[in-house]
Fold Tyrosinase P.
Amino acid sequence: MTPPLLPSLAGPLIRLLLLSVIISRSTCRHALDSDADLDAELNGKNASQDISSRQCSHLLKRQEWRTLSDEHKSEYIRAVKCTRKLPKLSSYAGVQSRFDDFQAVHIHTADSIHYTGHFLPWHRRFVTLFEQTLRRDCDYRGAIPIRTSPVFDPVTGFGGDGVKGTYTLPDNVTEESQIIRSTFVGCVMDGPFGYNASDPESFVVHGGPGKLVTTHCLVRGINDGFKQFLSADVVQNALRQQTYEEFRLALEGNDQHHRREESMDDSDLELSEHASGHLVVGGELGNLYSSPGEPLFFLHHANLDRIWWNWQIMDPDQRLADMSGNVLSDDVEDAPEDGLEWEDWISGQLPEDHDDQYNGIDFGGLNASSTVTLDLGLRFGPLGETIHIRDIMDITQFPSCYIYI
Ligand SMILES: [Cu+2]
């Protein structure tokens, strides 16, 4: 028989237990609270006021995945899955839900938002719009988590690696989809986004791979070889840069490795934080276009946004207004030919059913040699209003209203 606890010990022990329950409850409530700012933004309170004159009532706290309680983690995953039940807002081929809208908008704007000066601001706002969808429409009371740590737990995480032999790329994959074949290993078969052919509710992706429109399982091909480029040194190197352009290039890298299969075997391969964070998971996340079909996309980009913010606040006077870089990526700049204006050229790249309003940026008054400024308008199609870069430079100001802890 187990001896009863000595009465003199039981009292303090029970008090300690109660205290830890109270602390964990209040921490949880803190991380999962309500959002007056979101209400203000979405319901148009103070809508007559300029964005710059509105204020955050409080800041949402974005934190690392591993620091969330199991309850918070499962709440986040529930909310992500809930977006697959929300009505779609766009008319892109294949789109069936709000979750698909986010992937489709990214697929259709990818050529004008990567390897450009506005890469970081565009993705900053894109992540916030997804966070707002979770909070507004899926009753999630937390923030987007950050991924810097293991996330592949099948019970409290995003499921594991793709299983070899469970996925075959379609025959009609063309070069324009920039698919790196070796990274499309197989379907995720476990966890909340695992594929189960006999379950009609099973997680499937309706866009991609690349620019294709197919319904398929979530594909991964985890490759730990890319972890070497996700080191503290790589981040420190970016943080040491003095100008936004240098910083953005250090963090995003150039497009050569992200896009091309043959460069993957290059022994001189050196990848950026951005590219390696995509390629370490591979499959859908490793693709330039269809990556938001992988729920980890938002955690990866929240982390890049955190690094940008950390760089910004090292010299806020200067860096909260520091914006520069190409309006168009190098690939696009080379392209306009024989009597074709560059604006026609870039819209010519987009699919025929493409509505011009879904373009990633507002080109008004710019040309191919323009530099990105704080006045550039970022576009998100049906997901959100066009917003000027100047209005999201400071994440602690309206309409962003969040902080990294
Ligand atoms: Cu992107």
Notes: The CA atoms of residues 28 and 247 lie 35 Å apart.
